[in-house]
Amino acid sequence: MNSKVYWVALVLSFPLFTEAQSIQSAPFKSLNSKYDEQNPVIGPDALYFTVGNHPQNIAGKKDLGDIWVSVWVGGAWSKPIHGGDVINDAAYNSVAGFSPDGKTMFLLSHYGKKGTLATTQGISISKLGDYGWSAPENISMPYFLNRSNSLSGMINASENIFVFAADSYNTKGVEDIYVSFKKDGKWGEPINLGGDINTPYQELSPSLSEDGKIIYFSTNGRNGEGGFDIFKSTRLDDTWQSWSRPENVESLINTEARELFYRPFTKGSAFFTTTRNSDGYGDIRAWIDTVDVKNHQYLNRKSVVQISGTITNSKTGAAVKAKIFFKTDSLQFVYASEDGNYSIKIPTNKSYTIEILSIGYVNLSDRADLQVFDLKNLQMNFKLQPIEVGTVVQMKNVLFYMGTTKLLEESYSELNVVVGFLNDNPQIEIELEGHTDNRGDSKKNMVLSQQRVDVIKKYLVSRGINAKRLKGRGYGDTRPIATNENEESRKLNRRVEFLILKN
Prior knowledge:
Radius of gyration: 26 Å
CATH class of the largest domain: Mainly Beta
Largest sheet: 5 strands, antiparallel
Shape: elongated
CATH topology of the largest domain: Neuraminidase
Strand content: 35-45%
Mean pLDDT: 83
């Protein structure tokens, strides 16, 4: 079967769109905008890309590019979400690649401290943790220089080859393509790929095939269809200086418009950007090998649920602006609007941990197992407790095996939320409280509840919380909040809570 350009569809059953058909009628409809979409990179369960001059970027419309995120759900890409102020600043931000396990993201810039602009150049890494991507860590690279406004390129899956386009020390044109190798944990000095690849004009957005033998790049310095076309060349030896004559890739990709950021994601398939049929800025498209793409995990999701709801103050009922995390083995998130409303589309074939964070409120944790429901729409409303002395917070997902002090595995995600809350509010001190129902011997219940509190305290301390900020007491069956006459109400009495003692 021949390869085809699927201008907006990444599923086998979707038809090929013709030139005359509008991009707004297809599954990239929510992904592309009137702004400049650049550098699409598949990450852990999502597509990461850069959007230039968007008003929601850190520096607003003057911002050359921030990282945004979209997920493939229900046969289309979801409405993009801004990647947040941890991996974005007022400079140009873009993704170079991900580690094979999806836990490390490589970024095409250096970052300053606490939101300030970096005074150095290069690449950086961010780690996926309990609360999303960590603050990027700058990586030094000897003799790295880029006089261009932006940096483009990729790091291979083995994390030891970085190809990039830059205006550097020995650039022969405006931007040239370079390579740097990582050896013994350190990146080496960039090497210009030479005259077989670079011209007196611009070479941009290079990427490599999986085996590292083929390089793809865009240039306006060769005989192409338009301003920038995508070319490919095969490496002939290990010097990275000898290359086959660059060839213009499939004519269905290159047009009289500008084509950039060709990035393979399966054998014979790739994302790229084009200004064709757009309003002058880049839109993301896909080149699909219809044979190889059958088993690709991002392209076969058909079940999706729209989750929406409100976030309010538990005491006043006022709307609360908050950050909501829907987490599996990777991360997706959405920001609530100013009026406390939120809405997100996510796959239904997963179990999610939900975490809600807002300044001045106690972090909230919940669960949603969407593997067991056949839903199209789901409403989930949340009430956040303001941080006040005397506030009692129930940790409803912190559970123990019956009659023991051994935590169930699903308890750790909520305990980690408590860790995050205490780290974010270092002045707070709490008392952990353990409770049981009235079954069994009351003295043994008292002892068991105290032992469980001690286990939780030990875990929090192991995660870096100062033990002086934690008190703990087991109350056994002495403080029921419901009747003990039936199992449903007894469940409410078997609980772990914490009380805010100092703020």
